[in-house]
Amino acid sequence: MARILEGIKILDFTEGHMGSYGTMILADFGAEVIKVEDAASGGDMMRSRAPKNEKGSAYHAYLNRGKKSVCVDRHTEEGRKVILDLIAGADVVCDCFPVGELESCGLGYEDACRVKPDIIYASHTGFGKTGPLSNTSGSNLTVEAVTGLLDVTGHEGSIPTTHGSRIANQFGNLFFVIGIIGAVMVRDETGEGQVVDVASSDSMFTALEDILIDELMTGTIYVREGNGSRAIAPYDTFEVKDGYVSTAVSTNAQWRKFCDVMGFPEYADDPRFNSNDNRGENYHGVLFHIINDKFKDMTRAEIESLLRPLNIPSGPTLTVEEAIHSEQINHRNMVIELEDKALGKLKMPGMNIKMSDEPDTPSASAPLLGEDTVDILTFAGYSAEEIDLLKAKGIVKCAGGEQ
Amino acid sequence: MLPLQGITILDFTQAYNGPYCTMILADLGARVIKVERPGGEQSRFWEPYTEDDESGYFALLNRNKEGIAVDLGEPEGKEIIKKLYAKVDVIVENFKFGTIDKLGLGYDVAKEINPNVIFASSSGYGQSGPLATNTAYDNVIESMCGYMDMTGFPELPPLRSGASVGDSYTGITIATGIMLALYHKKKTGEGKRIDVAMLDTMFASLEDSIMTYSLTGKPLHRSGNAKSAEIVPYDSYMCKDNKMITVTITRDEMWPDFCEALDMPELIEDPLYATNDLRVRNFDRFTRMMQDYMAKQELNEMVERFQKHNIPASGVYRPIDAAEHPQMLARDMIITYHDDNIGEFTTFGMPIKFSKTPEQIRKGSPKIGGDTVSVMKEIGYDCDTIDKYIEEEIVEVPE
User: Per residue in B187-230, pLDDT tens?
Assistant: First the structure.
């Protein structure tokens, strides 16, 4: 079955996590994503990043599923020419470098426009390609620190704490994908390409919920509040007999049901707790302890069996291992298995954008370094002799990195 | 032209995740018609407020949108919506599971009226599976997908996001799905049914944790601000002035520069630390060394030294200070414009920097039912009927 982006060709210089997660989504939906890996440095650094074993990196296997790999030394004149020939047949060029890197190789947007006037250049970097930090590499942690996300996350009294995933880069990657599809739509209408510049920092900054404007509008200074909520009470994570449970009770109707099923119906209409505002005001010091005392002698399953039928939002704090084996995650096909060329059978996250009449499994596994060099150069018009010559000079590498 | 110029989206979403999604699409030029119940959606009653009790929360997420207020419980209200179904490219909803079907306005109905419509649903657990009918909040989803267990320090309880990213990250994921479906529609004329779950989305984000378990079968534990099993250095430390610094390298080639920035070139070839694999193995020892070192340095001086060597490093900014960061200012990430509800409104800018078709603020957030009349006229209602519906409180318009 044809996937949505079939026919779109992407020349992809991204590596690591920046940009690469975005081009994985494009590949999942059918774009031909050709990784251009640097022959001189042994390819995408992700190839040696943990989690890994002696055969290869599982993180690389995930982020690069469905992509192709061409291995070219872009720092040589002949390598540059090869890449320009590939750009001539591409719709989009992607990169994640600090400003100036591709330009210094003679592969900037202006250079590309000479061989492909409607080319789209899209980048995902930590801090963007303009401004005082444009030549600084970003990383997820420093972006969380710069945008304020780090400061607002953590237990009361504890230090600023990073998220459980590379969340700032993940936001950046999705804005990157949206920007690329948007630019392709514009090109299809107008015939013009353009430059799309996405930063993890800008992206993350748009997702601080109301915290930023609260500080700007009212001067409220936000403090880390652990697992609570500014808007709803009770809304917290409690220690129970065999772990933790997160629960939220927002409406008065839910509160009544909650009190009944937990065996303290007398609190249902207690003036301290009879509205969300009152529950919020009396949460710390009173209500927290009432719930905590009840929950601490119960198991995760006991609480779930009481609250699930009432549809009160609540759930156990599962480990990743437990989540991987949970019924809902598996029903949704969110753990898939691919036959990776380096690592063999490998489970990984599935596709979370579920769409009618579209497959929700990736099209292929990740490429070996330079696996597609010969095919892609042949398609671009190179003869076998020319390719051999480039190989002999070390300008390109083929499957597995051999010369 | 803006990327989504000419696209019309009917938006039933409320609260955080759906409105964040449609804000992204509106910023890209789509015409978003937000449907609220008379009286307004729930987030109009969320803090912060202006002196006139207008919600900044609502204004934040609903810029560039038009607003109509319609009672979906009344047959006349449903009729208005069905007429709109015939005209729009995309319908987005984040109601409780089953609600839109019960209203008689679900996907089957929409598809009958408009066979090529894109219909996107956002929910906690998705439209299928044993938990589909359950309602969820950010904290419950972050719990059940393993996210909280992976966030925080090992000696402290699991932790949730300070900014409810389960909502916003799901919102941007739906926006991505809608972009894909719109591209498909432009090519083929066909619509799509999109189903995005917070649980799926937050689970899939735990990339390295899932891949570690997949490869090794070993249980994992949260590791504070470090990635002690993956990349070292990648951590936070306390400086002499009691301020926290974050510093990371993102590739092995940066290690010598990192050592130079510390003014400790002898570390470059140190047999304990020379490669990332070695530093992972000797993480505790490396961390103690770095803690001792940073405890003697001033934050600002240290950040400057790292930046000079192109090593990612930063102090920890509060959101309000981030708004004054030179990088954020240079990127126009703080903008001020007129909002009909709030007046002058200062908020975050637009993150996709297109060289030729920049995202735009065309208007602020709508008043309740601010566009009810003009939208009803567009779909063929005459003034008498509109007045009658206003009288009967089937629709609402601003006073």
Answer: 999 999 999 999 999 999 999 999 999 999 987 889 999 999 99
Chain A hits for B252, Cβ within 8 Å? 45, 48
pLDDT-derived band at A39 (thresholds 50, 70, 90) equals: confident
Q: Do residues B206 and B142 lie in contact, with contact meaning Cβ atoms separated by under 8 Å?
A: no
B124: helix, strand or coil: coil
Tell me whether residues A246 and B150 touch, CB distance under 8 A.
Answer: no
CA distance A3 to A11: 18
Phi (first) and psi of residue A365, to 5 degrees: -90, -175
Q: CB distance A137–B311 less than 8 Å? A: yes
Q: How far apart are CA B97 and CA B101, in angstroms?
A: 9
**Residues B340-351, mean pLDDT to the nearest whole number:** 97
Contact A59 B208 (CB under 8 A): yes
Query: Do B206 and A42 touch, CB atoms closer than 8 A?
Result: no
* pTM score, whole prediction: 0.98
Which member of A49, A316, A346 has the closest CB to residue B214? A346
The residue of B97, B247, B304, B356 whose CB has the most chain A CBs within 10 angstroms, and thus the best one to mutate to test that interface, is B356
Q: Is B321 assigned a catalytic role?
A: no
Query: pLDDT of B14-30, one tens digit each?
Result: 999 999 999 999 999 99
Please give the residue of chain B at the shortest CA–CA distance from A56: B215
Residue among B78, B116, B70, B76 at smallest CA distance from B100: B78
Q: 10 Å Cβ neighbour count for A269?
A: 12
Q: Which amino acid would we find at residue A217?
A: M
Instruction: Kindly identify which residue of chain A lies nearest to residue B169, measuring between CA atoms.
Output: A171
The nearest CA of chain A is from the CA of B106 a distance in Å of 15
Rounded to a whole number, what is the distance in Å from the CA of A108 to chain B's nearest CA? 14
Q: How many CB pairs under 8 A join A and B?
A: 505
Convert the pLDDT of each residue in A86-112 to its tens digit: 999 999 999 999 999 999 999 999 999
Q: Choose, from B27, B89, B167, B195, the residue flagged as catalytic.
A: B167
A153 → closest Cβ in B46, B150, B162 = B162
Specify the pLDDT at position A266. Answer: 97
Q: Which positions in chain B touch A340 (Cβ < 8 Å)? A: none
**Length of chain A measured in residues:** 403
Closest-CA residue in chain B for A249?
B137
Instruction: Name which of B327, B329, B336 to mutate to probe chain A: the one with the most chain A Cβ atoms within 10 A of its Cβ.
Output: B327
What angle do helix axes A167-190 and A140-147 make, rounded to 10 degrees?
90
CB contact under 8 A, B139 and A246: yes
Q: What is the DSSP string of A243-309?
A: EEEEEE--SHHHHHHHHHHTT-GGGTT-TTTSSHHHHHHTIIIIIHHHHHHHHTTS-HHHHHHHHTT
pLDDT in tens, B83-126: 999 999 999 999 999 999 999 999 999 999 999 999 999 999 99
Tokens of B56: 């900044």
| In contact, A310 and A260? CB cutoff 8 Å | no
Contact A123, A137 (CB under 8 A): no
Spatial contact of A314 and B140, defined as CB atoms under 8 Å apart? yes
Burial class (CB in 10 A: 0-12, 13-18, 19+), B140: buried
User: How far is it, in rounded angstroms, from Cα A286 to Cα A368?
Assistant: 59
| Assigned token pair, B18 | 């759906």
